Structures are given as C-alpha cells and as structure tokens.
Amino acid sequence: MRPARARRHIAVLPCDGAGKEVVPEAVKVMKAAGADYDFQEYDVNADQYMRTGEPIPAQIWSDLEKADSILFGAVGDPRVNDAAYLAGVLLRLRFELDLYVNLRPAKLYDDRLSPLRKEERRKIDLLILRENTEGLYVGMGGRFKKGTEEEVAIQEDVNTYLGVTRIIDYAFKVAEREVVMVDKSNAMTYAGALWQERWKEVARRYPHIKTRHLYVDAAAMQLVRDPTQFEVIVTGNLFGDILSDLTAELIGGMGIAPSGNVNPETKRGLFEPVHGTAPDIAGKGLVNPIGAILSASMMVRHLGQQEMASAIEGAVESALRAGECTRDLGGSLSTSEVGDAVAKRLRD
Ligand code: IPM
Ligand code: MG
Question: pTM for the complete prediction?
C-alpha cells in the first residue's frame, strides 16, 4: 500500500504528435470539472529518446511508479523507426506496472456517428476487456538466418494460467448480464485450450452471469452485424487490440474511443485514447480530443470520483449532440475549441 496523499499525483505524458495536442484538452476539462489533482508533465517523447537513447529515463520512471495515475497521449514518431521506443514506453508501462486489464468501452453518444444502416442495431454500449500483459505482445521469439531466403521468424504467444484467469475473473466482476469470451481455440489449440479451461472454471463461480463463447472471426462479424447484443467481451491481447479498433469505428471513429489500463488490485492506472500519434494531421489543430477527454473521465472514475466522471461524460455527449466537434465527426471546431466547448458545459 502506498501512503495516502492529500492530492492525487497525476503523471501527464503527452508523448508525440496528436498526443501533445489532445492531452492538454483532457487536463483542461478535468480542471473545469473541479478535479483537484497535482498534474505533473514528464518529458517522455521522441525528441527526448533521440537525445538520450532512453525511452523513459530512470528518474522519470521512479516518479511514474509512484504516481496515483498516468494520463497518456500517444507514442511514435516517423523519425524514430525503432520498435524499441514503443516497447520502452507504452508496453513497458503496461507490463512493468502490471496493468493487466485494458478497458476499451464503446458507447454511441449520438446516433449520427454510427456507420451502421439499421437504426435498431446502432446503439452500441459495450466493454472490451483486453488482456494487457502477455499474449503475442511480450516480445519473445527471434529471427534465425535473418535477411536470407532461409529466414525463420518466431513470435511466441505467451498465455499463463494466472494471466488468463485474472482477466476472465475481472470480466465476471464487472458484468451485469453476460460475458462473451473470444479466442481462436479451433486453430490455436494450446493457448486456446488454456483459455477454454480457465473460462469454464471461472464461469462456474458466477452462476448469475450468462456466458457465451465466440471465435474471434465470428466476433468481428457479429460486432458489425449487431453490436447491441454485447455487454462485456473478454479476450487476449492481440484480439482485443484488433476488435477495439473495430468498435471505435462503430461509435464515430478512432478520435473518439477512450481506454484505460489498470490493475484492480494495486489500483494503478494509465489512461489513453485508443488513437495513435496521427502524424498526417498532427500539429494543425485538427485532431479530435474526445478520446483523450473520455479517457480522463475513466481515470477520474478509477480514482473514485464517480460523479465528476459522469459529469465529464455528460458534457462530452452534449457537445457531440450539439455538433461541437472536430471535422472527423462532421463539425468545424479545432482541437482546443472542442476542449473549450466541453469545459464550458462543466463550468455552466
Ligand atoms: C493500442 C495500440 C498499441 C497496441 C500499439 C501502439 C502497440 O495499437 O493501444 O491499441 O497494439 O496495444
Ligand atoms: Mg490498437
């Protein structure tokens, strides 16, 4: 247990590109909502990496470990053509802080934002729970005879009893009606068998929650056919990554989708929009800050301030319905004007 502190220490990591534009809007909105946090921004970004060769310098890392929560923008830069940078920032934070739950909610705030034709199937309000610390992301494997025509590349899919059990268990704890488990156990038989066994065992402990299993290809199809059928989906790291881009598109696109990376036991958390650095539009006031603002709302909720979190979400919903949004959602406001529009609703 870390000692209780009067003010929460929020580490702010805008990082690169679009992240630098959207994170200040999220901070602006939290302040307008009355959040009394001690925000501290850290110099973790591509410039810093190119200067020092360290994705996260040791001194900053020790602060991040102590922070109550981390608000994160996006990481990546066309000048850094190096997977070590991404792995050394975002994946390191997820893995070493053991943020094993990746919460990716998808809720449609305004009917006009759905790409689906059938009205009764648009009202998506679901939560993808993505295992966030293992799977194909752990970076195990290698390249043999690299660069030759005999090359062999191996990327290991790591699934542990503990890792699979705890994410499935978390899904049952947060669901009210039904948990759908998504895997590819018909083709990936070793990892799939472990997921199936843990799924059936954990489900027995929650007899009041309905259960359903889908292979990931069928899940993708069902999400487009009728997303209203889902409440909670639990799945592995890569499948969760892919399906959550799909669900982002069902609520208005990448600019709007939020996410949280949390450890329910230690209460640590890192909150970030699902979108990346968007180098094609970054720096021009065009990027949509809603994904970051909704991530901030998730952070506020995680810190125990439910009412403030709902107020932020409500202000976002009302701004979206009034058409006060960026061009990707059919509006004409700039990044900071959207932040202002949401903040104004919280102050009024
Ligand atoms: C995401 C991103 C990351 C992921 C990338 C940047 C490694 O796509 O957060 O969804 O795959 O987890
Ligand atoms: Mg992704």
Answer: 0.96
